[in-house]
Recover the amino acids of this structure.
């Protein structure tokens, strides 16, 4: 995931923490334009939760966000077994 974020203009890595020498974070994949405006898009989407504002928003032109979480854990013994 880190390599994809490094080589692609359509992906960025947001680091959240590090545990046991493993990077924890989010890989965000989108158009380069959306990646540049992530904070603005986040604020727009927050307005959807306000009933006084949400009915006035042009949701047909708002990008969709899908957030998926995964966790991969393995002991060193399992990792060595998988490398065979």
């Amino acid at each position: 995931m880190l390599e994809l974020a490094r080589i692609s203009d359509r992906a960025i890595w947001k680091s959240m923490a590090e545990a046991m020498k493993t990077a924890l974070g989010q890989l965000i994949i989108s158009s380069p334009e959306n990646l540049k405006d992530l904070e603005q898009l986040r604020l727009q989407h927050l307005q959807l939760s306000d009933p006084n504002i949400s009915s006035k928003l042009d949701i047909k032109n708002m990008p969709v966000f899908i957030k998926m979480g995964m966790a991969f854990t393995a002991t060193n013994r399992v990792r060595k077994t998988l490398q065979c």
In short: DSSP finds five helices and two strands in the chain.
